[in-house]
Amino acid sequence: MSVEQRDLTYRNPVLNADWSDPDVIRVGDDFYLTASSFGRVPGLPLLHSRDLVNWTLVGHALERLEPEAEFTTPRHDCGVWAPALRHHDDRFWIFWGDPDQGIFQVNAPEIRGPWSRPLLVKAGKGLIDPCPLWDDETGEAYLVHAWAKSRSGVKNRLTGHRMHPHGTELLDEGKVIVDGDRIPGWFTLEGPKLYRHDGWFWILAPAGGVETGWQGAFRSRAFFGPYEEKVVLEQKDTDVNGPHQGGWVRTPSGEDWFLHFQQRGAYGRVVHLQPLRWDREGWPVLGDDGAPVAVHRRPDLPAQPPAAPATDDDFPGGRHGRQWQWAANPRDGWATQHSADGLRLTCVRSAGAHDLRTLPNVLTQRLPGDPCTVEVDLRLDSEEPGARAGLAVLGDAYGWIGLQRATDGTVHLVHRFAETVAERERDAGRPSPAPGGRARLRIDIGDGARCRFSYDTGGGPRPSGQVFAATPWRWVGALLGLVALAPSGQGHAGTATFTQFRISIQKKRADQ
User: Which of 18, 21, 63, 98 is catalytic?
Assistant: First the structure.
């Protein structure tokens, strides 16, 4: 492919990391996207683009998960599920379902906030994937949501409500408006997005499960139905498994596009951009006649410089960038601001120090979907015996490499891992001295999220341990993590300082 052709086209995925369950809107010349954040904090990431291809992370809409007591420890499959982003009455609105609490809403006058405190619009178990609609033709407001069988015993159906135009409450008990059990071959119907177009109420909703499913479209002349359905995007003969769950957006010139996810194991749910057109019967046609596109002409929008959500961080003044999220609601004192660069993490005392998956004080960011190298400098400042800090790849199984203070006061390079079913970690490599308590830590991540750990304590790079294959959490892709911890005890256990965090993506060939 020539340079000129590449300039006129884009390649999927446009967001090659775990931006799960995306939803998208346009306000003027700007496009905004949000995604599931589950139990990580801050939640509800906010991304911005001018061309639907290049995206940057501009903030989060949710500072802490509520109720706060429920998220003091990691809950990777709970929290914020499948949000819907809308702009109405000069405000941004996000609705999401917490499967254990109910349907929440936040709103703000600007995308960067300030965002309101979460409001519980509908309490209940298993209420997920809500999406509002303000009907400009009638002044009515509606909301549709799906069900999580794990909490409610119900799935494969969509429930509709009338909603107060202020978005603060629902006005009826709700009615099943689409029952997937009544549609031959359909199962796990979820993730609805609600629209008004061409005199129809439209629900774009996936079914069939995230690994192998498809994207459906439903339409009706009345909100409460009856609806007719059609499959509008499926894998066909492509390598994009389960292409579904996302949002439709129209450009200023009238082009239509659809952003959706693909489940990619340890990489999580990466985001694809599909062209959308309307056939003679008025149904949407996504991709290449219903099959996902790998390369396509760019949207008819002004050219933009290449951009992607940030990954690298020098931690100026001890502050971490927007790309980082804690594994649970953070507490004061986990990170210390100061006058220089570098992230100064407190070695938090924990009875669960033998298993990083149980710790809330792990600072995480998404694992890139391309082969890459992850590096960071670490200095262990704590004098506490047993204090340790390092760089991790976290999922149902995990591995980490870092530094630990021994009982004799020396510092050693350690490398540990835990299998999926293991309750305690064990050594993955042999401990070695780390003079001065410093090390450059490195993880080379290849195809299939296979990780090779190495380090440099002053004598040059050295490999450590066997290859570790990253694994996802239940609904979340694998995460990169920075952690500092210490054994249980009394008093402050000291700190560890991380500097020059870098992720280097392996470049693709010029013809790709």
Answer: 21
182 secondary structure, DSSP code: G
Q: Is 300 a catalytic residue?
A: no
Q: How far apart are CA 322 and CA 267, in angstroms?
A: 20
**Integer angstrom CA distances of residue 386 from 380, 382, 400:** 11, 9, 16
- 21 in catalytic set: yes
* pTM of the model as a whole: 0.96
Count Cβ atoms within 10 A of the Cβ of residue 432 and give its class: 0-12 exposed, 13-18 middle, 19 or more buried.
Answer: middle
Spatial contact of 284 and 225, defined as CB atoms under 8 Å apart: no
Distance between CA 391 and CA 401 in Å, rounded? 6
* Residue range 260-264: mean pLDDT, rounded: 98
Question: Which among 310, 246, 242, 308 has a CA at the least distance from the CA of 273?
Answer: 246
DSSP sequence for 358-422: G-S-EEEEEPPSS-EEEEEEEEE---STT-EEEEEEESSSEEEEEEEE-TTS-EEEEEEEE-TT-
Locate 267 and state its tokens.
Answer: 């990489």
Cis peptide before 22 (omega within 30 of 0): no
Among residues 153, 161, 196, 199, the alpha carbon closest in space to that of 177 is found at: 161
Which one of the listed residues 23, 51, 190, 396 is annotated catalytic?
190
d(CA 483, CA 414): 13
Mean pLDDT of the chain: 96
Which residues, listed in sequence order, are joined to residue 276 by a DSSP beta bridge?
256, 286
- Both tokens assigned to 497: 């300082």
pLDDT tens, residue by residue, 192-244: 999 999 999 999 999 999 999 999 999 999 999 999 999 999 999 999 999 99
The pLDDT tens digits for 396-451 are 999 999 999 999 999 999 999 999 999 999 999 999 999 999 999 999 999 999 99
b/e sequence 492-505, b meaning 16+ C-beta within 10 Å? ebbbbbbbebebee
